[in-house]
Amino acid sequence: MQDKRYIICGNAPTSGIEENPERDLRLRLWGKDGPDKITLRIEDIHKKMSKDVPDSFQDLLEIATYVYCADQAIPRGADDVDSFGHGWRRNLHFIIPVRNPDFWNGEEIQQALCSTLGFLSDDSYHFEFTKLKDAQAFQGYLDFNDDGRLHGYPEQVVMFSGGLDSLAGAIDEVLNEKHRVVLVTHKPTPKLNKRHRRLEKMIADKAGENTPLHIGVRVNKNKKLNKEYTQRSRSFLYVSIGATIAKMLNLNSVRFYENGVISLNLPVCAQVVGGRATRTTHPRVFRGFQEIISLVAGEPFTIENPYIWKTKAEVVEVITKAGCQDMIAASTTCTHTWEMTNDHTHCGTCSQCIDRRFAVIAAKADQYDPVEAYKADIFTQSRSKDEDKIMAAAYLERANQVRDLDGITQFIAQFSEVSRVFRYLDGNPGSAAQKVYDLYKRHATEVCDAMKTMIARNITAILQRTLPGDCLLRTMYESGSVISVPAIELTIEQPANYFRRRGDVWEVRFNKGQPIKLVTANKGSQYLSYLLSHPNQPIPVAELVCGSFYDPSSGIFSAAEIDGDDIEDGYQITQGIPLTDAGVIIDAKAREQYRERISELLQDIDEARDTGNKEKEEELRDEMTVIACALNGSKARGGKPRTLGDKRKNVKDSFRIAVKRAIEKISEYDSPLGQHLDSSIKFGNEPVYRTEEEIVWEVRPIVNE
């Protein structure tokens, strides 16, 4: 990770910081114009909406603006963004003046901000909030230049980017469901203004009296601050804008419309792993946004994506079935907006353009999406850059691989990244896994069918070889469906710290030291991995034990973690408390029963915690304790029945012994790591891995090579 970069915002004091102009960044939202001045403008606001905006939401909007601008102004360390590791991730330390520093410096909101933004952009975030002095009034951010009509009182705030997905969402809301909505658009570049206005008019012409209110938001800054194009934090600004407008309307939710394949965003190839595999609408990010804004609002706030189970082709069908196919050409999907011209509104080479072209063909709507709008035709034109060739080929190859998979197990093994998402989706992990698998299977079928369509249309040119030899159609046809493209040599630096499983072996590395492998102490290693993946989060010991045995990504037990010598008393799970003397814990039926019940309990505990039902939460934890006791093979001395208190103590003791044993084994090979773990792991009823200085651990298992 790069050295710490300070971002000093507004009139925040800098006592104790030795500023380095070449390293650190200053940003201001008010005051005189200068190279560090940024401007936030919310346009077309109705005057009735601008009253009584809470201080916490004003702070939220300013924080999000500073984060977004810093994301663009601080480049990632690698000159070549295809090189990862040390150069990719940034260490960003914000000092931001706010109206209520006590709230923003609180542990809960700090944890929500840092963990959510860290996952979103693949960077490390730190926030220090100071008391804001001489703040400008919130009305200073607003332009009251609407036409004076509120178009009926809005029922919903919908984020509208002008791409195909948000266009379909607006059509669903306004034309199909007849909802009164506010469409909120972040306008990152003036190049999109005309196209946005065209779409607004086309929707209004169809909607009549139900015309939605459009609100645009701009963030302007000095051109010298545009250094990094990945802009992963944009959705944080976007959701903060939407939530603030929702609060102004006394609403408690915001809707994004993004197809599930893009939201889950399995990397198609090496160029789009890590922070380059955008997570802007990932379910985990939405869960984090929801937590942040609920804390800011002081009440539950919902972030929704109604299209999470749709493919992009299915999104296009929403548009065509509503009779709005003429709007497709006016929408803009391309991520390379800096390349946009009047003749070519799409580059044709970025992942979004590729996805769009396959989707409109699969939906039989490509006659409404002129190929002339693309600077490069993905199917028939030569590409000069190797990375463009491999991006398109890898996109197609992933579809081929998914199409040929026989079930969920193969899917998870092939694309381990997907395992991150199950716990953040509705329903139990098993049903969520099935829905994700079905989504990607449908998408794979659409991609392959679109390819067949394009080959059929161009078969003469392919056979006569009048198409370029390196275009996608000829590459695909002449290779017999085996993709053959120039490989891009990538420098992939291993993480400085990892504690991950590879088969039956644990691979461990600390502080860029020599890697070690552990072939024993499996149970303790599993516990350690779980703790390291949840830094500074105290976890009740029963949940930790069950969570480490139960893999929520696949919904199965890791049987290798259950040592036969530890099992002295078997349990089975019905719908209630486990019963003793009912068989062996690792038989197939018991594993399935444990899997189902732990899944239910983990979700029920989260729900009870979210609703503040302490009594229900304690009741569920009691049952989790009994299961944890069973997993640890505990029984009373002399065969006497154990009380719940005995079970808690037994689970706690068994956990501590297993972890201590693993740390002792690690210390034999890596003394510094052993000392670090020994001092950082705190035991008790709620074990926690706590360090003064943040350490990022890679804990995802190696399941496919």
Automatic annotation (TrEMBL):
Reaction catalysed by this enzyme: 7-carboxy-7-carbaguanine + NH4(+) + 2 ATP = 7-cyano-7-carbaguanine + 2 AMP + 2 diphosphate + 2 H(+)
GO molecular function: ATP binding; ligase activity; metal ion binding
EC number per UniProt: 6.3.4.20
Top EC category: ligase
Superkingdom of origin: Bacteria
Pathway(s): Purine metabolism; 7-cyano-7-deazaguanine biosynthesis
Signal peptide (UniProt feature, chain positions): none
Keywords recorded for this protein, A-Z: ATP-binding, Coiled coil, Ligase, Metal-binding, Nucleotide-binding, Queuosine biosynthesis, Zinc
Keyword presence, Aminoacyl-tRNA synthetase: no
Pfam families in the record: QueC
Coiled coil: 591-618
A single BP term in Gene Ontology: tRNA queuosine(34) biosynthetic process
UniProt similarity note: Belongs to the QueC family.
Annotated protein name in UniProt: 7-cyano-7-deazaguanine synthase
Species, as recorded: Shewanella fodinae
